[in-house]
């Protein structure tokens, strides 16, 4: 890999990412992706989701295998707790997106990472989802992400990694900005 | 450019839609001062010799300065001449104007980078009772009704306008996206002095890793404050301006929605400023300026309240006006030569436009970091006029058959 000679190796192929960026700059149509998920109700609040195909680079694409996710609610909500709650999946999405970004930016800036861990906490007043108080929103009141990063870099450089990762993160954008959502019944 | 062409006896005219310094006369707010100090506006054979080198020119002084330069160099300016179109001909270009047509062998596009105020498309959802002005249309707070004002954009224009409006007694909310914080005075010297002395302003476009990105970076959050104070977000918070995140959208029922990214926008800005000051300190140490200047220091981080508001209801009458300080783009609608990319940007290599004999002047990081400053015009004009002249020499005018 090209970056092996430049020092840091976080296992991110930055040369390939940069090549892709150049190629997509010249062919913006190929940059149009569609990400998909399918979800099936099982019983109670339990559902089973699968992720298989997506669209990008002008054609249908497939993951190497099908990924599955069970979602449910805990027993204190009178559910059977057969999976993480949907809002916890949002935290997972945010954490994994930011963490991948940190690795990629670190590689690009030639910073060797030794360990990166994040803990996330989303505050929620469930009076919203339970319909007790209309003034309370359904979603998170706020999300706190705390990183612990051990890397060959000054504190400012590590802070800059985390800041740049937020700037370029899809999930961070999705949770911090409005998105039009269209739900239809076939 | 006119001065450099005259020096080489190149026959030329300068077409001006209004009068010299037109943009400064008609598209800026009243209290604006130049964000670079007086000493820094150095044009070929012309510079400041007044008694306030560290001051910042008022709007009237900028107009007077540029006008005097045009007189001093006897620039062949055709005032009140609006260019309708420029197209290629076999031997150069045909320039159509409302005062007749010109055939020329070379064209310099110096029409500016800030012709059209960029306003997000969702501005059409702003309730009709709210007055909307762009930074180009805004003149002073008296234009606005009493009541709350939402200023969108926290670069140089947005912060100055927010400050002035808030001081007029109208409560301001400032929507903050990407911006770059900068101290007006650092270690006892103007930030522009440091950037000039350390060579940062002379950095060339072909030395940058990613020039496309460097050209997109928002301008420094600097203001020509008469007392040389720093007008950053903390200064605005101190007088009571309310910070909100980047304006992400306006819902159909008239609610402005702000991004939850405010904290990161401020963190990115603080980090960028830190890196700039690190470079300055490093240069000062290497070049023996540590004794002459004050000690290195850092500004306290930008303060952001724990849970900034994510929305403002625009229908309940609290907000009376919105000022869009969301950037500008150039107007090339008259340019009928295929030199624009798919985003409408002019394709050029350091000001040498992809169509032979066409040149650009005065856009962000065109040839050097200072290209968009008055102080950057001289070096760029010297380089580009030399290229233009060698182009004319190698491509003699077509002889008549």
Q: Can you lay out the helices and strands and say which pair or pack?
A:
The complex is a heterodimer of chains A (186) and B (401).
Chain A: H1 14-26, E1 38-43, E2 46-56, E3 59-71, H2 86-108, E4 113-123, E5 142-151, H3 155-167, H4 170-176
Chain B: H1 2-7, E1 14-15, H2 22-26, H3 59-72, E2 77-78, E3 83-88, E4 93-97, E5 100-104, E6 107-109, E7 116-117, E8 131-134, E9 148-152, H4 156-167, E10 172-176, E11 185-186, E12 189-190, H5 191-197, H6 211-216, H7 233-239, E13 242-245, E14 247-250, E15 255-258, H8 262-286, E16 311-313, E17 319-324, E18 328-329, E19 348-349, E20 352-353, E21 358-360, H9 374-394
Parallel strand pairs in B: 1-2, 6-21, 8-17, 9-10, 9-17, 10-13
Antiparallel strand pairs in B: 3-4, 4-5, 7-18, 11-12, 14-15, 15-16, 19-20
CATH architecture identity of the largest domain in chain B? 3-Layer(bba) Sandwich
Biggest sheet of chain A, in brief?
A: 3 strands, antiparallel
The class by helix and strand makeup of chain B works out as alpha/beta
Rg over alpha carbons of chain B? 23 Å
Please, could you describe this protein's structure?
Chain A has 186 residues and is α+β, with helices and mostly antiparallel strands. Chain A has 2 domains: 122 residues, 2-Layer Sandwich (GMP Synthetase, Chain A, domain 3), CATH 3.30.300; 53 residues, no CATH class. Chain A is built from 4 helices and 5 strands. In chain A, a hairpin with a 2-residue loop joins strand 1 and strand 2. In chain A, helix 2 packs across helix 3 and helix 2 packs across helix 4. Chain A is globular, with a radius of gyration of 20 Å. Chain A starts with 13 loop residues before the first helix and ends in a 10-residue tail after the last helix. Chain B has 2 domains: 179 residues, 3-Layer(bba) Sandwich (FAD/NAD(P)-binding domain), CATH 3.50.50.60; 211 residues, FAD/NAD(P)-binding domain, CATH 3.50.50. Chain B contains 9 helices and 21 strands. Chain B is globular and about 65 Å long. In chain B, the strands form 8 sheets. Chain B has a 5-stranded parallel β-sheet with strand order 8-17-9-10-13, with helices on one face. In chain B, strands 3-4-5 form a 3-stranded antiparallel β-sheet, with no helix packed on it. In chain B, 26% of the residues lie in helices and 18% in strands. Chain B starts with a helix and ends in a 7-residue tail after the last helix. Chain B is an alpha/beta fold and 401 residues long. The mean pLDDT of chain B is 95. The chains are: A alpha+beta (186), B alpha/beta (401).
């Amino acid at each position: 890999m090209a970056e092996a000679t430049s020092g840091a190796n976080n296992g991110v192929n930055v040369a390939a990412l940069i090549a892709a960026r150049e190629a997509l700059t010249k062919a913006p149509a190929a940059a149009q992706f569609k990400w998909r998920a399918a979800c099936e109700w099982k019983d109670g609040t339990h559902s089973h989701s699968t992720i298989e195909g997506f669209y990008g680079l002008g054609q249908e694409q497939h993951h190497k295998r099908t990924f599955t996710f069970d979602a449910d609610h805990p027993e204190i909500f009178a559910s059977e707790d057969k999976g993480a709650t949907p809002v916890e999946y949002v935290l997972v999405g945010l954490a994994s997106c930011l963490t991948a970004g940190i690795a990629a930016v670190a590689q690009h800036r030639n910073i060797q990472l030794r360990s990166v861990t994040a803990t996330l906490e989303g505050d929620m007043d469930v009076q919203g989802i339970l319909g007790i108080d209309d003034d309370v929103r359904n979603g998170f009141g706020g999300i706190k992400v705390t990183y612990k990063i051990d890397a060959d870099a000054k504190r400012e450089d590590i802070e800059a990694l985390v800041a740049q990762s937020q700037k370029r993160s899809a999930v961070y954008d999705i949770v911090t900005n409005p998105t039009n959502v269209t739900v239809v019944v076939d | 450019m006119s001065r450099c062409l005259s020096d080489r006896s190149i026959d030329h005219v300068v077409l001006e839609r209004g009068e010299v310094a037109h943009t400064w006369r008609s598209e800026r707010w009243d209290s604006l001062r130049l964000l670079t100090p007086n000493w820094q506006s150095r044009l070929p054979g012309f510079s400041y010799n007044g008694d306030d080198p560290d001051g910042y020119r008022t709007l009237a002084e900028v107009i007077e300065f540029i006008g005097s330069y045009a007189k001093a160099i006897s620039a062949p300016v055709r005032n009140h001449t609006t260019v309708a179109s420029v197209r290629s001909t076999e031997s150069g270009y045909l320039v159509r104007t409302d005062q007749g047509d010109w055939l020329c062998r070379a064209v310099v596009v110096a029409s500016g980078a800030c012709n059209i105020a960029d306003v997000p498309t969702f501005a059409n959802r702003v309730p009709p009772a709210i007055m909307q002005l762009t930074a180009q249309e805004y003149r002073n707070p008296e234009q606005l009704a009493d009541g709350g004002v939402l200023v969108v954009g926290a670069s140089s224009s947005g912060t100055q306008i927010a400050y002035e409006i808030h001081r007029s007694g109208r409560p301001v909310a400032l929507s903050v996206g990407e911006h770059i914080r900068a101290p007006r005075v650092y270690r006892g010297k103007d930030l522009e002095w440091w950037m000039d002395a350390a060579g940062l302003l002379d950095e060339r476009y072909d030395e940058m890793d990613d020039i496309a990105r460097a050209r997109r970076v928002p301008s420094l959050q600097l203001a020509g404050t008469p007392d040389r104070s720093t007008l950053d977000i903390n200064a605005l918070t101190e007088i009571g301006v309310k910070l909100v995140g980047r304006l992400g959208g306006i819902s159909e029922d008239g609610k402005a929605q702000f991004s939850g990214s405010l904290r990161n926008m401020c963190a990115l800005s603080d980090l960028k400023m830190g890196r700039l000051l690190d470079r300055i300190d490093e240069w000062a140490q290497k070049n023996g300026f540590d004794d002459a200047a004050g000690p290195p220091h850092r500004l306290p981080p930008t303060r952001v309240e724990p849970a900034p508001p994510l929305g403002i209801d625009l229908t309940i009458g609290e907000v009376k006006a919105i000022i869009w300080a969301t950037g500008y783009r150039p107007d090339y609608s008259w340019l009928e030569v295929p030199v624009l990319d798919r985003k409408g940007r002019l394709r050029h290599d350091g000001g040498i436009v992809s169509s032979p004999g066409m040149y650009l002047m005065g856009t962000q990081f065109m040839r050097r970091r200072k290209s968009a400053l008055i102080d950057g015009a001289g070096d760029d004009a010297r380089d580009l006029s030399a290229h233009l002249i060698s182009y004319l020499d190698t491509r003699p005018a077509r002889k008549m058959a």
